[in-house]
Amino acid sequence: MNSLFRLLLAALAACAVSSSAVAQSKVNRAPGFAKLAPGAKVALMPADIELFEISGGGVSEPRADWTAAAQEHVRAAYRARKEKLGLQVIDLEDDASEPVLELNRLQRAVGGAISFHHFGMAALPTKDQKLDWTLGPGVAVVRDKSGADYALFTYIRDSYASADRKAAMVVGALFGIGMPGGMQYGFISLVDLRSGQIVWANQVIRPTGDLRTAGPAQETIDTMLTGLMEQAGPAPTSHRPRSIKDW
């Protein structure tokens, strides 16, 4: 099981509601960054996604079939939102080159630190509650490859209770024993490819959400992208939103 996912669940599952409230109150833009200019070029990086099934004994086991389905649903969700972003989106989702994969791994580590120290409960005094993080000069490889101004990184780990786990949870509840079920954690960041600075970030930590089917996967991506569209400019007037979860 992915070590970052295990650490995040251990630290955050018990306080998902309070952590979400804290995250909503945090500034998710870097100092000096107001919004994306209309027509800005954004490279869509390969989504870093893995799904797990929780056994009756509480062990999280990777599910390759669920992960493959989630990858496709997330791609479709981003395609459905490209026009509404009001940006020039350059798709690098199929780029499996080592420099790109290495940047994804770096973003995974830095994103975990941001979740814990910026959106979470362990603020770093040196940051002064500011979104002040960087991926370093290595992001230049994406700028050279795509010609983009920014890169959008997506990291999601999602888990679901098996039938045995659900039965164990019911039995535990009868005896006053709380057993956690699945948890969805997602982190998204927008990186300035000229400096490596993370200029915008958002996250979800919740016991709901499902990437295994298209509709709920779209809702997850919409939730994670909340605020980015408003920064990019007004959405097209066609295809009006049908619910508060739609753009």
Structure description:
- Helix 3 (64-85) packs across helix 7 (214-224).
- Strands 1, 2, 3, 4, 5, 6 and 7 form a seven-stranded mixed beta sheet that branches.
- This protein has helices at residues 3-12, 16-25, 64-85, 98-119, 140-146, 163-174, 214-224, 228-232, and strands at residues 41-44, 48-54, 60-62, 88-91, 150-161, 184-192, 198-206.
- The two termini are 34 Å apart.
- The radius of gyration is 18 Å and the shape is globular.
- The protein has one domain.
- The protein has 247 residues and is an alpha/beta fold.
- The model is unreliable at 1-7, 10-25 and 232-247 (pLDDT under 50).
Termini gap:
34 Å
The general outline is: globular
Please give the count of helices.
8
Number of folding domains? 1
Structural class: alpha/beta
Helix content: 40-55%
Low-confidence stretches: 1-7, 10-25, 232-247
Please count the beta strands (DSSP E, at least 2 residues each): 7
Major sheet description: 7 strands, mixed
Q: Give the DSSP E fraction (strand runs of 2 or more residues).
A: 15-25%
Q: Strand-and-helix sequence, N→C?
A: HHEEEHEHHEHEEHH
Mean of all residue-level pLDDT scores = 80
What gyration radius follows from the Cα positions, in whole Å? 18 Å
Layout of secondary structure:
Elements: H1 3-12, H2 16-25, E1 41-44, E2 48-54, E3 60-62, H3 64-85, E4 88-91, H4 98-119, H5 140-146, E5 150-161, H6 163-174, E6 184-192, E7 198-206, H7 214-224, H8 228-232
Helix pairs in contact: 3-7
